[in-house]
C-alpha cells in the first residue's frame, strides 16, 4: 500500500511559512495523533484562521454538547421527545438544498482523465481559487478535526480520512454516517493512507457579528484532486456537498483508488436475502439518486417465504476476495435517506428506523413538535411549519417538506439490519442489479447475457432526473452505473475497469450474474404499470431463482426475460395487459436509443472499450432482427 503524499500546505503552495499560528492552536492535538495529520491541521488553520480547533472524539458527551449549542444558535430545533426522542430538525438556507453537480470538479492534470462527464479545472488554477476562498474562511468559527473510517474499524477493506469543517451540523452528521473520532484516529498510523478533506461553509464572522441558522455561501466548490487524493469543499453544508466521507471520498476519490488497486467503489445498496428453502444470497444494486435504493435495501417482500435484510442503502465497496469471489462492504455507518415520500405503505422499515436519535433536514414541523412530510401519512395535518419556517396548511399549494428533505440515522438502528452488515470480511455478492427511472422502453427486469453485456447495460443506464441534485426535474439523462455525478475519473476508463474486474473474477469462477430493473415504467395513461415497493420482492425472487438455476427465462433482444409464469404474481395487483406492457419491446424505439447511446459513447472518443462498442452493435443486430 502506498502512502499518501503530504497534503499541500495550502491549496496553492507546498509550504506556507507566512502565517503565524496562535499558540493555543498548537497544543490541541491528541498526543497519539499522526504527526502528518497534525501538520496538515496546523497549515489549514493558518490558512483559514479559525478562533479555535477541536479534535473530535466521537463521544456521546461531545455530540450532546454540539447539539445543545446548535439548538442555542437556532441551527436545529429539538423535536418533542415524547414522539421523537433525541431528534432534531434542521432547516437549511433555501439556496442550499441538494448536491451541486455544476459546482463539482475533478481536477486531474489532463482534462481527458476526468472525462466528458465531469467538470474539470486544471489543478493549479483550482488550487489558486480555493486558496483565495479558504483564506480566513473560518474566522470567528471553530475548526473541527474529524477523523473517520469508511468501513468497519480495522477491516482490510476499510479506508481512512480526516475532514476539517467549521460546521457543527456536518460534524454530527459525520458522527452518524461514519465511524468517527478517536477510534478512527487510532487506526491512522504513520504508515496508513488517509484522505484529507477540507470543508468550510465559507461564512466567516466579524468580531461581534451574529451568526445565522444555516451559514453558507452563494459561491460553491466541491473539488477533488484524484492524483493527490484530496477533497476541498466550499460554501455548502448540505448532504453530499459537505459530508465529504460520502460522495466525495467513498465514491469520487475511492473510485480512483479502486481503479488503481483492482476493486470497485459503487453507488449501490447492499442486501441479504434468504429464500424459502433457507438459502442465503447477497445482492448489490445501483440505482441513480432518489430512485429507490433505500426502499429496496429495506424491502419487505409481499411474497411469502422470502426474507430481506439490510446491509447498506447508498454506497458499496466491492473487491475480489482471496477466495476469488466478489466481496462487498457498506463503507458507511448510517443512512442519509430521502424523507419525502417515505411512509408506512412505501417503506415501513425506514419509518421504524427513524423512531428517535435522528436528524431531519428540511422536513415540516408539526404543532405537537413531531415531523411530517408528503407521503409520511395519507392526509396532511391541518397546520404545519414548512421546511422554509413558514406557516403551512393543506391549502398552501406548496410542498411542506422539500422534495430532497432527508433523515440522518444510524444504520444499527434499522430493524432489518443484517447481522453481517459490519462483517470486516464483507459479504459474497451473488447478483448485481442496475436500475433507472424510465417511463418507457426499459422492461421491468432483464438478465444480462454475460458480464460484458452487463457492463453494457450499466454503461447505458438513463434515468429521469430527481430532486437529489439541482437541475431540471424529470429530464432524461444518461447516468451510467448510477455514477454520473460520482465517478472520479474518465467514465469510459471506468467501464474498462469493470471489464477487467469481470475478467479477473471469471478466472476463479466468482463472477456474479448481472440484471437490470425498472420499477417506473408507465402506461399510456401516465400510471405506473408496476406496483413497486414490497412487490419488487417478486422480481428479486426471480433474479435469485435464476442465480440458483431454477427459474425459466426466455431470450429477447435485451437479454433474458422471465418465462411466462416465472415471476410469482399471486396476490399482486397487476393486470395481464399491464404485465405485457412492462416487457413490451419496440425495436424502432430501441434502435433510436442505440443511436443516442452511440452519440454518448462518441463523447469519450477512443477511450470507450471495444467490448462496449461491440455490445452496442450486437444490440442493433438483435433489434433489427426482432
Ligand atoms: P439517494 O439517497 O439519493 O442516493 O437515493 P435512493 O436511491 O436511496 O432513493 P430512495 O430509496 O429514498 O428513493 C426515493 C424515491 O423513490 C421516493 O420517491 C420513493 O417513493 C421512490 N420509490 C422507491 N421505490 C419505488 C418503487 O418501487 N416504485 C415507485 N413508483 N417508486 C419508488
Ligand atoms: C445522492 O444524491 O445520491 C445521495 C444524497 O445519496 S447526497 O449525499 O446528498 O449526495
Ligand atoms: Mn446516493
Report on the structure:
Residues 1-5 and 12-24 have low confidence and may be disordered. The chain folds into 3 domains: 23-70 and 96-261, Phosphoenolpyruvate Carboxykinase, domain 1; 265-332 and 420-625, Phosphoenolpyruvate Carboxykinase, domain 3; 334-413, Phosphoenolpyruvate Carboxykinase, domain 2, CATH 2.170.8. Strand 12 and strand 13 (280-286) form a beta hairpin. Helices cover 28% and strands 21% of the residues. The strands form 7 sheets. Strands 1, 4, 5, 6, 7, 8, 9 and 10 form an 8-stranded mixed sheet that branches. The protein is α+β, with helices and mostly antiparallel strands and 626 residues long. The protein is built from 17 helices and 31 strands. It binds guanosine-5'-triphosphate, sulfopyruvate and manganese (II) ion. Guanosine-5'-triphosphate binds next to helix 10 and strand 17.
Amino acid at each position: 500500500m502506498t502512502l499518501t503524499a503530504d497534503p499541500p500546505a495550502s491549496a496553492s503552495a507546498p509550504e506556507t511559512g507566512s502565517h503565524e499560528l496562535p499558540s493555543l492552536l498548537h497544543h490541541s492535538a491528541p498526543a497519539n495523533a499522526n504527526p502528518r495529520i497534525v501538520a496538515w491541521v496546523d497549515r489549514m488553520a493558518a490558512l483559514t484562521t479559525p478562533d479555535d480547533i477541536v479534535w473530535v472524539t466521537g463521544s456521546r458527551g461531545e455530540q450532546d454538547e454540539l447539539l445543545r449549542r446548535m439548538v442555542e444558535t437556532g441551527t436545529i430545533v429539538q423535536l418533542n421527545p415524547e414522539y421523537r426522542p433525541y431528534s432534531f430538525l434542521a432547516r437549511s438556507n433555501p439556496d442550499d438544498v441538494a448536491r451541486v453537480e455544476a459546482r463539482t470538479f475533478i481536477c486531474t492534470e489532463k482534462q481527458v482523465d476526468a472525462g466528458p462527464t465531469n467538470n474539470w479545472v486544471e489543478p493549479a488554477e483550482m488550487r489558486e481559487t480555493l486558496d483565495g476562498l479558504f483564506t480566513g474562511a473560518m474566522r470567528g468559527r471553530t475548526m473541527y478535526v474529524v477523523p473517520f473510517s469508511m468501513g468497519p474499524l480495522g477491516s482490510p477493506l476499510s479506508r481512512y480520512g480526516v475532514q476539517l469543517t467549521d460546521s457543527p451540523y456536518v460534524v454530527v452528521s459525520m458522527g452518524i454516517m461514519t465511524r468517527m473520532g478517536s477510534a478512527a484516529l487510532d487506526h491512522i498510523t504513520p504508515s496508513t493512507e488517509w484522505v484529507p478533506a477540507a470543508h468550510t461553509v465559507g461564512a466567516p464572522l466579524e468580531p461581534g457579528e451574529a451568526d445565522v441558522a444555516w451559514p453558507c455561501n452563494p459561491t460553491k466548490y466541491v473539488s477533488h484532486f484524484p492524483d493527490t487524493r484530496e477533497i476541498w469543499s466550499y460554501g455548502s453544508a448540505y448532504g453530499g456537498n459537505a459530508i465529504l466521507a460520502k460522495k466525495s471520498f467513498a465514491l469520487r476519490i475511492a473510485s480512483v483508488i479502486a481503479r488503481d488497486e483492482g476493486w470497485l467503489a459503487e453507488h449501490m445498496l447492499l442486501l441479504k436475502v434468504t429464500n424459502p428453502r433457507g438459502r442465503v444470497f447477497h445482492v448489490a444494486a445501483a440505482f441513480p439518486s432518489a430512485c429507490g435504493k433505500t426502499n429496496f435495501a429495506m424491502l419487505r417482500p409481499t411474497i411469502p417465504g422470502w426474507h430481506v435484510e439490510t446491509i447498506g442503502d447508498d454506497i458499496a465497496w466491492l473487491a475480489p476476495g482471496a477466495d476469488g469471489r466478489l466481496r462487498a462492504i457498506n463503507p458507511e455507518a448510517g443512512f442519509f435517506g430521502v424523507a419525502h415520500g417515505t411512509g408506512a405503505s412505501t417503506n415501513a422499515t425506514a419509518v421504524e428506523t427513524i423512531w428517535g436519535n435522528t436528524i431531519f433536514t428540511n422536513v415540516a414541523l408539526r404543532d405537537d413538535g413531531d415531523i411530517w412530510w408528503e407521503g409520511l401519512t395519507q392526509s396532511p395535518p391541518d397546520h404545519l411549519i414548512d421546511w422554509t419556517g413558514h406557516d403551512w396548511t393543506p391549502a398552501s399549494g406548496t410542498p411542506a417538506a422539500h422534495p430532497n428533505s432527508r433523515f440522518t440515522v444510524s444504520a444499527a438502528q434499522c430493524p432489518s439490519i443484517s447481522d453481517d452488515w459490519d462483517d470486516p470480511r464483507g459479504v459474497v455478492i451473488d447478483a448485481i442489479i442496475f436500475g433507472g427511472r424510465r417511463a418507457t422502453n426499459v422492461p421491468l427486469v432483464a438478465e444480462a447475457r454475460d458480464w460484458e453485456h452487463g457492463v453494457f447495460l450499466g454503461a447505458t443506464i438513463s434515468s429521469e432526473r430527481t430532486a437529489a441534485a439541482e437541475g431540471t426535474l424529470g429530464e432524461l439523462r444518461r447516468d451510467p452505473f448510477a455514477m454520473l455525478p460520482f465517478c472520479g475519473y474518465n467514465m469510459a476508463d471506468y467501464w474498462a475497469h469493470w471489464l477487467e474486474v469481470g475478467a479477473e473474477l471469471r478466472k476463479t469462477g466468482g463472477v456474479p450474474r448481472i440484471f437490470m430493473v425498472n420499477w417506473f415504467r408507465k402506461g399510456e395513461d401516465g400510471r405506473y404499470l408496476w406496483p413497486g415497493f414490497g412487490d419488487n420482492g417478486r422480481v428479486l425472487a426471480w433474479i435469485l431463482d435464476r442465480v440458483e438455476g431454477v427459474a425459466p427465462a426466455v431470450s429477447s433482444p435485451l437479454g433474458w426475460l422471465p418465462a411466462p409464469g416465472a415471476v410469482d404474481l399471486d396476490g399482486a395487483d397487476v393486470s395481464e395487459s399491464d404485465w405485457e406492457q412492462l416487457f413490451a419491446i419496440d425495436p424502432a424505439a430501441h434502435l433510436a436509443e442505440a443511436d443516442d447511446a452511440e452519440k454518448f459513447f462518441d463523447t469519450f472518443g477512443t477511450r470507450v472499450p471495444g467490448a462496449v462498442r461491440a455490445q452496442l452493435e450486437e444490440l442493433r443486430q438483435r433489434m433489427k432482427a426482432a
